[in-house]
Amino acid sequence: MDVPSYVPIVGWGGFGLIFLVSGLFSIIYIRHYRNQRYSVCSSTTTAVISLMVTLSALALAPVDVFVVSVMKEPDGSFKTWASDNATRERVEDAILYTYYTLYALIVTFLYLIIPFAIFFYEEDDEDISIATRVCRASKFTICFLGFAVIILLAGAFIPVNSKPPSGDHTAWVEIEYLLHSLSDTKGENALCFLISFISLLGLIAIIVYTSYGMMVIPIDLIRGRRDTEEELRDINTRRERNQERRQRLERRYGDRRTSAGRYRDQQDELEDEEMLIQRSERHLTVLRDSNKSFIHRCSLLWWPFRVAIAVIILMMDALILVSLFLTCLDKALHSDGPKTGYNLSKSVLPNPIDLILLLCQEVFPLDLIIFVIILMFFMWASMAGIKKIGIWFCCLKMYRIRPHRTRAQGVLFMCMVMMYILMALNIVMFTLAPDYLSFGNQRYITNANETKSCTFEAGEECIPTVTRALLTQFTYSFWFFGACYYWVTWLFIGIILVSVVIALLKKPTSAIEGAVDSSDLEDSDDEPIQT
Question: pLDDT per residue over 322-376, tens digit each?
């Protein structure tokens, strides 16, 4: 039987709308951080498209939930058009192939296009020809591509988990059938293995950046920025110390100043510091003068609203923490252990966010809006963490992310980190709302003619989402990843609590944060700070 026209119109229409919004957000986000003077059209386009594709993969989950939920009536019976297995499989296959297409594009961007763009612009020199830059960038990109190929081959040949748990065999049989129907080929197993690996790296990035950003945003909103007069006094103190160091340096080396290499190095370092002091002083002076204006005095009325927003964010942080804790505790008590990836066939403990999404699903598209809000909150926290911490690799700070001052390579690295984080948000959202992402608000009729919410115990009476099938593939078939996701989630909860202490102990944010940095010494400083 044909699918009613309203199903693809509402489902895929909503996905298309989110796709366009994701593109608009990606454009604004990248343009906000890129350095206009050093920006390159191709690198900006690469960053925008890669972010848009990753956001679209996340946005497919609520569409998937809507499609499977609309197949059943509130009393638990299938609708007429959905009573045919072939019709249901056709609808689910469309979502599954969309997921595979988006995942393939994400892997292509992460291990081919973005690395090539990064190394291509690292060789940006007038004396180096385009052909030479392409050749050098290709050599480094092959390393990324080779790594991805190794992971794919490992996923294709590593045997998947097929051992039934010791508990409820009925639920396990349904999960086993779900996995076999999803991936019958080595290629699909290989792609799922690579996506599982990417999600694990993304969870590590979430621990580093998102956990800190979740706490630093509300605390910074409440505390505000440092007073400009106080910072100007600190600048004068820094200048006096710098001058004292230069005098001691001259007295120490005496007549050997011109021949001593160490003297020249230290002298250059002190001169660079003096330039930074002068820049900071100029920006702070401009900002102090603007603070005396009538518009700035009126903006002080914004402080109570800022505190109210901070309180709302803290409440959302608490709600996320409680939901994560309850799901992890539920897995600890009622799952079948690490050998099944801590797979939970039926939720026992109540989960606040899960319950909210299930209730809001009765009023479409309220659940979609709340789902997107939660995703945007995680993205906001991740961006705040990246901005505060910067891009690090092997304990080395590679790039500092600043609005309108981040170079092309830094933007691409930032985009790569965000892609890993967004891929890991699939795991986080599944932990926050396991029932919602598994069956939506579907219900089924028991043998006693009772209507219950769907779980895997219902067998063929319920239709699991493609999102749940893929996540089960990630966490159960390759149980090592499922166990890692579980323990990393506990670590994420702990790091969030630690981040509260760190954010409180840190000094308030500078009034000119992001306007002055040592990396600007090679650039001119003609543009005043934006007040």
Answer: 999 999 999 888 887 787 778 877 788 888 999 999 888 888 778 888 988 998 8
Using H for helix, E for strand and C for coil, what is the string for 36-96? CCCCCHHHHHHHHHHHHHHHHHHHHHHHHHHHHHCCECCCCCECHHHCCHHHHHHHHHHHH
Strands 443-445 and 396-399: unpaired
Run of H or E including 286: helix 261-290
| 127-182: pLDDT as tens digits | 677 788 888 888 888 988 999 899 888 887 776 655 544 444 445 455 555 545 44
**pTM reported for the whole predicted model:** 0.85
C-alpha distances (whole Å) from 460 to each of 77, 78, 452, 471 are: 12, 11, 14, 19
Dihedral sign (CA 291, 296, 297, 301): negative
Q: Are 424 and 52 in contact (CB under 8 A)?
A: no
CA distance linking residue 249 with residue 87, whole number of Å: 82
User: Residue 3: what are its φ and ψ, rounded to 5°?
Assistant: -75, 135
Distance CA 8, CA 65 (A): 13
Q: Can you point out the beta strands (E) in 418-523?
A: 443-445, 451-453
